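S.,

Sequence below, as promised.
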Amino acid sequence: MQFPAELIQDLRKRLRRAGGQVQAVETMLAEGRECRDVVTQLSAATKALDQVGFRLIASGLTYCLEHPDEAAESGYDLDEVQRLFTKLA
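The prediction came back faster than expected:
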């Protein structure tokens, strides 16, 4: 399944942001920062990763609905994409 270039750009930007948030968590731990601050940053990183997954699945579902035969041929029929969604949920 091919994803639009603008989706890939958006996902990569979100992943870079999440990577920065994870690095910030490491730094905060090394500096002995307060638990609540670390958890807040960790929560932000987790949500950023969730958003990447959900946007990817949403695009896959759209593709499946618009091109059901092509999606099925490439191994991404609607049932498979729904299974992937439940892994994230």
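Residues 18 and 38 are 14 Å apart (CA to CA).

Coffee later?
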